[in-house]
Amino acid sequence: MELNDFDFNLSPHLIAQSPDPIRDNSRLMVLGINDTFIEHRKFSNIIEYLKKGDLLILNDTRVIPARLSGEKEGTKGKIEVFLLRKRSNDKTTEQEWEVLFKPAKRVKEGTIIIFSGGLLKGRVIKRERESGIVKFESKDDFSDIINQIGRVPLPPYIKREKTVNNNINPIESMDKQRYQTVYAQKEGAVAAPTAGLHFTHSLLEEVKKKGIEIVFITLHVGRGTFQPVRVKEITRHKMHKEYYEISKDSAQRINRAKEKNKRIFCVGTTTVRALEDSAKAGKVVPGIKSTDIFIYPGYKFKMVDALITNFHLPKSTLLMLICAFASAGKTNQQGIDLIKNAYQKAIEKKYRFYSFGDAMILL
Predict the structure, then answer these.
(1) For the chain, what is the mean pLDDT?
(2) For the structural domain made of 67-150, what CATH number should be given?
(3) Which residues pair with 123 in a beta bridge?
């Protein structure tokens, strides 16, 4: 399979720049894989496609405000630092992080970067092209300061002005709430698990009342989400590793449901990747791990029975995963064609695409 097999044309005006004012009021395309049907609903109607005994798997990662605007000590040259992953240092006021620099040409090992007038200071201890490692020192708790001065790491296709009349853009302030699921708990992601953005507390209560079990796992979405596939032959693409954690209790509940032939509904590609990476001999193995699993057509799914997801970028690894899921019981090309047809229907009906866009459920 080649990269162009996963291409499609999308008008820029269909790329959602902001979320629907009401989370579960977004649109929902329902795609039946085996009997090939398409329905057009609201996300709040998703409860109708779940039944008692099903398991709904949610990713409880929490997005950190990972974009930091700083100045070089001395020259005051502007530098943006994008937090990627915390290293082993667990001190609250002194931490090391893997980061991206912009512009990287202004940075070398030993460079001191000052943030927010000295509230936070970082020293570059390693530099490799656009990335590196920064040792941060803060006057107060690092996490508290980041939440105070950091900006939401929105994908590059969502455009925001930094300020309005020298004040924080109110839309960007809103992003801190809406580019986060209502059940987000564990800090560490630099991108949201966007399929979960449509759920509300009241909808989750409806799910529970119907007898559907909710299970939480954690996968911290990394920069690989934004990395395009650049190789013509997709099997040569290498994924960035992402941290995930599945507790013993969550694994037991998933395995028990699987033994009883209950359906496993994954909310988002992140939960799919964590479950499939952890599966051994038909069971989820608990633990804290990193995964670089790459799922594309031809992959045999072990744990997932249904998938709730957003509409993804052309030529992206996320689109490839969706095509792989649609290929179950079919040829690879049939699965790809099924998704391409569904995406064309979405374009014709003016669904909103990507992170703040509408959703799809594959049954």
Answers:
(1) 93
(2) 2.40.10.240
(3) 112, 135
CATH architecture group of domain 3-63+179-362: 3-Layer(aba) Sandwich (3.40)
Q: Is 69 exposed, middle or buried (0-12, 13-18, 19+ CB in 10 A)?
A: middle
Work out the angle between the directed axes of helices 269-278 and 317-326 (0-180°, nearest 10).
70
Q: How far apart are CA 161 and CA 146, in angstroms?
A: 20
Which pair of tokens denotes residue 233? 């032959």
Q: Matching CATH topology for 3-63+179-362 and 67-150?
A: no
DSSP bridge partners of 359: 28, 310
Give the pLDDT mean for 247-276: 97
Distance of alpha carbon 358 from alpha carbon 310, whole angstroms: 6
- 261 close to 280: Cβ distance less than 8 angstroms: no
What is the distance, to the nearest Å, from the Cα of residue 29 to the centroid of all Cα atoms in its chain? Answer: 20
Please give the structure tokens belonging to residue 141.
């708790």
pLDDT score of 44: 98
- Going by their DSSP bridges, the two strands 55-59 and 213-219 should be labelled as parallel
Q: How many residues does the chain have?
A: 363
Could you tell me the pTM of the whole model? 0.92
User: Structural domain boundaries of the chain?
Assistant: 3-63+179-362, 67-150
Q: Which of 221, 197, 226, 205 is nearest to 358 (CA)?
A: 197
Question: Of the ranges 113-127, 218-232, 262-276, which one carries the lowest mean pLDDT score?
Answer: 218-232
